[in-house]
Amino acid sequence: MKFIVNNGGRLSGNIRVPGDKSISHRSIMFGSIAEGTSTISGFLEGEDSLNTLRAFRSMGVDIEGPDKGQVVIHGVGMNGLKQPDMPLDLGNSGTSMRLLAGLLSGQSFDVELCGDASLSKRPMERVTRPLAQMGARIDTTEGGRPPLRIQGGAALQGIDYLLPMASAQVKSCVLLAGMYASGKTCTTEPAPTRDHTERMLTAFGCSVQRDGATACIEGPASLTACDIDVPADISSAAFFMVGASIAPGSDIVLEHVGINPTRTGVIDILKLMGADIELFNESEVGGEPVADIRVRSARLQGTRIPEQLVPLAIDEFPVIFVAAACAEGETVVTGAEELRVKESDRIQVMAVGLQALGVDARATPDGMVIHGGSIGSGRVNSHDDHRIAMAFAMAALCAQGTITIDDCENVNTSFPDFVGLAAAAGLSIRSE
Ligand code: SPQ
Questions:
Q1: CB-ligand 1 contact for 343 (6 Å cutoff)
Q2: Contacts of 321 (CB under 8 A, 6+ apart)
Q3: What Rg, from alpha-carbon coordinates, does the chain have?
Q4: What's the pTM?
Q5: Which of 159, 231, 299, 352, by CA, is between 20 and 30 Å from 256?
Q6: Do 167 and 269 reside in the same domain of the chain?
């Protein structure tokens, strides 16, 4: 599938983007191993979170829905999962594979986790190494890539793990294995990363002790069912934040967006660049803060992005690079080497795409230097990466001509009906 996006236009109206992907994954995982029935509303019906849902169904969990974002999970308890008949195919979803590696290391049965071509290239040693220290037995292909073959019946021991990189997936993986381990499991992160696991485990009645950068869990743990209201995904809202900022005359309200402080780096970065962003109707749902976000167009300025904001905006960099390409002056991103091991190498793929559109963008080992001003027109390849496809779609709002984006199917992993919602908001987009 390709997107064809005509240049110009502006974004306006009130829109609600789909549910948060990170929270949707975790709601299925924790609801499945809890005692009792959990109802999830606002669940993301995208391919990634649906792959997590299907995985738990194939391990014997009775899950109703999704029906208009509502999912009812009849939890089987910590030790109630059954051995699946086939390898669990997690498609494009790194979160599913890395979190499930932890959760399934403590089961009594063998299981294999596999995925699509992109997921099969992503590094898994970052999770298999700490899990092996806990006593898990997991085989990978050479180079630590999927599939992961997890042997059941391992007796896990708690560990103290200092994360070598800022990664919520690694932290969550170790904590989930810690629920099945004897003794205490602690993770310490080099910089704050999204803390949905810690917040949601607490909502499911499992205490996570937090002290600065360290989070600990006492095993063996148990979870009690609870209802979860999934807010709109700030990572999906980010495309519209940038789109409205760069398209003159825009004025858009993004409703009920999750504004967990470990996810709001994109707002801070855009504000540093001069964006006009206002939060209102702030409230809290199920331990997660939410707000409506109003964005009006503004003249963006290039900036040096503070490194401490990088992990707090890690998934938003493709579209932040687009904002930088439209901004006046130079934007410098450093400390973002993790972008190279996402669904695509997001530094390389964005630099090549921006260059194809006439932008002065230079990839560096850990980021990019962009001299902004204007975007031309042309054809780019998303390399099957949902966030690259949607970022280049928004670029058309400040481009001089049409932008065609190839390989856009995977937008369905995180943002079903992106084309419909973006067109309703004012983007001149069609898919073919
Ligand atoms: O699930 P997946 O494929 O890894 O998805 C991405 C994304 O852009 O949607 C990353 F490519 O989000 C990750 C995010 O980058 C989701 C996530 C989570 O839910 O815990 C954490 C981040 O990854 P990491 O490696 O920094 O922990």
A1: yes
A2: 333, 350, 354, 361, 368, 370, 391
A3: 21
A4: 0.98
A5: 299
A6: no
Taking the C-alpha atoms of residue 277 and residue 387, their distance in angstroms, rounded to an integer, is: 21
Instruction: Determine the pLDDT at residue 318.
Output: 99
The three-class DSSP label of residue 56 is helix
Q: What is the CATH number of the domain that holds 95?
A: 3.65.10.10
22 Cβ below 6 A of ligand 1: yes
98 close to ligand 1 (CB < 6 Angstrom): no
Residue 229 has pLDDT above 90, yes or no: yes
Check whether residue 177 and residue 307 sit in a common domain: no
Q: Is 345 in the pocket of ligand 1 (CB under 6 A)?
A: no
Residue 199: its H or E element: helix 196-203
Q: Hey, how many other C-beta atoms are within 10 angstroms of the C-beta on 291? A: 21
Q: What is the pLDDT of residue 286?
A: 83
**Of 169, 196, 343, which is best to mutate to test ligand 1, by the most ligand atoms within 8 angstroms of its C-beta?**
169
Q: Which of 383, 384, 381, 380 is nearest to 409 (CA)?
A: 384
Task: Kindly provide the b/e burial profile for residues 359-396, where b requires at least 16 CB atoms within 10 angstroms of the residue's own CB.
Answer: bebebeebbbbbbbeebebbebbbbbbbbbbbbbbbbb
- Regarding whether 82 and 101 lie in a shared domain, the answer is yes
How many domains does the chain divide into?
Answer: 2
One domain for residues 278 and 364: yes
Q: How confident is the model at residue 71 (pLDDT cuts 50, 70, 90)?
A: very high
Same domain, residue pair 164 and 140: yes
Q: Using the mean position of ligand 1's atoms as its centre, give its distance from the Cα of residue 141 in Å.
A: 21
Digit-coded pLDDT (tens) for 350-409: 999 999 999 999 999 999 999 999 999 999 999 999 999 999 999 999 999 999 999 999
Q: Are residue 275 and residue 158 in the same domain, yes or no?
A: no
Instruction: Check whether residue 12 and residue 59 sit in a common domain.
Output: no
Atom of ligand 1 nearest to the CA of 342: 11
Q: Domain boundary at 212, 229, 246, which?
A: 229
Q: Which atom of ligand 1 is nearest to the CA of 126?
A: 25
Domain boundary among 229, 254, 283: 229
Asked if 29 and 11 sit in the same domain, the reply is: no
- Residue 96 C-alpha to ligand 1 middle, in angstroms? 9
Is 167 touching ligand 1 by the criterion CB < 6 Å?
yes
* 287 C-alpha to ligand 1 centroid (Å): 20
Ligand 1 pocket residue status of 194, Cβ below 6 Å: yes
Task: Give yes or no for a cis peptide into 220 (omega within 30° of 0).
Answer: yes
Compute the distance from residue 249 Cα to the ligand 1 centre, in Å. 33
